[in-house]
Amino acid sequence: MEHDELKKYIHDVPDFPKPGIVFKDIAPLLASAKARTAAVDLLLKEVENLKIDTVVGIESRGFLLGTLLADRLGAKFVMVRKPGKLPGDLERMPYQLEYGYDTLEIQEHAIAKGEKVLIHDDVLATGGTVSAAADLVEKVGGEVVALNFLMELSFLNGRKKIKSHKVLPLIKF
């Protein structure tokens, strides 16, 4: 299955979660073993020549394929979450949303100094969330080698916030 064939497994949901937004629903892709396996295979092909010790998944849809990528890479998996969802000593990173602010957290000792990290999320939109996640990984001592995504919403120009990193989207809209 090719990159563009996977697009038929991503459905547009107009006016969700609020009017004017077209949500990209990946549930059909996740429901299809064939499409899900093809997506993971293609995501892995993009990073096959990189040394990766850790895959970081961004809450929550980044966990879905991120754990599968980590399994196939023989790497550990680390979660980056919204506040109040991780135990222990945490590092925090606030970031700006279109309207307001939010925060991401990571367990302080989840990544050893110098570990090579692949950050995975389902979608690159405005770039704020993944930029904050990359800052968190670097704050705890990891080295971000690439950012990979199931899809990129190119019209939102998210790459501008993360131009210092290798960006590897599977599908572009």
Describe what this molecule looks like in 3D:
The chain has a single domain (50-172), classed as Rossmann fold (3-Layer(aba) Sandwich). Helices cover 28% and strands 34% of the residues. It has five helices and nine strands. The protein has helices spanning 3-6, 27-31, 33-47, 61-73, 128-139, and strands spanning 11-14, 22-25, 54-58, 76-80, 90-97, 100-107, 116-124, 143-152, 167-172. Strands 4-3-7-8-9 form a five-stranded parallel β-sheet, sandwiched between helices. Helix 3 (33-47) packs across helix 4. The protein is globular, with a radius of gyration of 15 Å. Homodimer. It is found in: Cytoplasm. This is Adenine phosphoribosyltransferase.
Describe the structure in brief.
With 173 residues, the protein is of the alpha/beta class.
C-alpha Rg, in Å?
15 Å
Main-sheet strand order equals 4-3-7-8-9
Q: Given the C-alpha coordinates, what overall shape results?
A: globular
How many domains, as an integer?
A: 1
Q: What about the largest sheet?
A: 5 strands, parallel
CATH class membership: Alpha Beta
Distance between the termini: 18 Å
Helix/strand/pairing category: alpha/beta
Mean pLDDT: 96
